[in-house]
Amino acid sequence: MAQKLKKKSTRLTGRIVIPGNPSYNTARMEFNRRFSKFPRVIVFCQRTQDVINAVKWARERGIRLRVRSGRHSYEAFSAVSGGIIIDVSEMNKVKVDRKNRLAIVQTGNPLARVYKKLWNKRVAIPAGTAPDVGVAGLTLGGGIGLLSRKFGLTCDNLKQVKMVVASGRYGAKTIVANRKKHSDLLWASRGGGGGNFGAATEYTFRVRPISSVSIYSITWKWRDLEKVFPAWQRWAPSVTNRLTSTIEVSAKQVGTIVSTGQLLGGAEELRRLIRPLLRAGTPVKVMVKTVPFIEATKFFAEADLNLEPKFKITGAYGFQPLPPEGVRIIRDFLSKAPNRHSSVWSQSLGGAGSAVSRVSPAETAYPHRKAETIYELSARWRNSREQERNIQWVERFRRALRPFVKGDYVNFPDLQIKNWPKAYYGENFGRLKQVKRKYDPHNVFRFAQSIPVGKQIRK
Per-residue pLDDT for 457 more than 80? Predict the structure, then answer.
């Protein structure tokens, strides 16, 4: 017999937006405009109790819930039609303890705000480049960026997480996970993906002193692709781990290849380090300069601004450089891209004593420790009539590259990947299911690719 739902006693608190409110359309909107979902209610939480009340309210009524911070879930996993969105974006305090090199960051903060608040105390965490990405999902999925090779992933610098989890049949409570208590939940929160176990409300990060850095940008014409891409792939993992770099090959209609990077060091050293790249092909534009770290974050953020509103993205990891055939696949697909807003982007992660690869694949939930690079294949568009063509192009591209790459990054989710547990989590999936069973046995926090409740292990 179906369980009777508990008497509906909990009231929603926080800023509540329902259909018919003037702000409803703005409040329901996702970063990826390919999706348009219509929640029954959106709660903008201002304090942890608002999150607890929202989870209890949803459970008492048998209503589906989703947790949202920066709205950047590429497949809109943080939105739901007919359910409740628990939005933490108005919980955005940042407190820095420079003496103990710690920062307490509420999970509603976008990256630009985190960088700015930490910069005021001349400290940083390794994190991503898009300024409006929420720190919550970025951290839970791993968190890669221009400090990764030296300081690790964002999740590697996560010391503690406060999370609202389901409790009993209809309740909710806050727990604190760190190395001493609920260490299994901290392990899962370091790469196990957002929205799987509960609603994270606050992180404690280890922070690093920082002042100035050096940055570079090199541009080539498209015809140099087969010289430049292999040269970057050989060079990027072999250079000092104080230098993390990227390369982006645009559609042939745009006709450029651009590599950028950041060095913890001076411009003179950086000019020397990038010589192997400068010898590849014929660079048409070169920039090298030393800037305050906060200016570097703004420089790298520019690539994420003014993009087309609808997109399809997938990812993969490179464990060795692409062979000539793999580079030809990139050339062939980008020469027949659905429009000029298509590209392949790659970032260095491993090699040369990288902090990412020094961690064992089982030490955190993020398993892709031995990868040298990460890839992002993307197509963007504005007109819905172009949607199917773009999505199919990305899917064909992913399949064509599959012999040369492995897995996918959980923060680049792709609903077309059938064996997503292996792609995202590798050997860690089994343990993640056990953590899910312990902290969310009723599967309250679920979505299309959420971690399922594992079977109980008999002792």
Answer: no
For residue 420, what are the CA distances in angstroms to 311, 316, 361, 407, 429? Answer: 20, 12, 17, 8, 10
Beta strands 212-221 and 158-167 are unpaired
383: pLDDT strictly greater than 60? yes
How many Å apart are CA 80 and CA 64, to the nearest integer? 8
DSSP secondary structure letter of residue 364: S
Give residue 400's pLDDT: 98
Dihedral sign computed on CA atoms, order 133, 134, 138, 144: positive
Q: What is the DSSP string of 99-143?
A: TTTEEEEETT-BHHHHHHHHHTTTEE----S-TTSBHHHHHHH--
What is the pTM (predicted TM-score) of this model?
0.96
Interval 344-361 mean pLDDT: 95
In whole angstroms, give the CA distance from residue 295 to residue 212: 9
Secondary structure of residue 151 in the 3-state scheme: helix
Strand, coil or helix: 54? helix
Distance between CA atoms of residues 107 and 158, nearest Å: 12
**CA end-to-end span of the chain, whole Å?**
31
- Cα Rg for the chain, rounded, in angstroms? 22
Are 90 and 44 in contact by the 8 Å Cβ rule? The answer is yes
CB burial of 352-378 (b: ≥16 within 10 Å; e: otherwise) equals bebbbbebebeebbbbbbbbbbbbbbb
The answer, yes or no, to whether residue 96 has pLDDT greater than 90, is yes
Residues contacting residue 197 through CB under 8 Å, at least 6 positions apart: 163, 165, 185, 188, 189, 435, 436, 439, 440, 445, 451
CB 281 within 8 A of CB 235: no
- Name the amino acid, one letter, at 34: R
Q: Are 212 and 310 in contact (CB under 8 A)?
A: no
User: What are residue 390's phi and psi, to 5 degrees?
Assistant: -65, -45
Helix ranges (DSSP H) in 173-306: 183-189, 225-235, 267-273, 275-278, 293-301
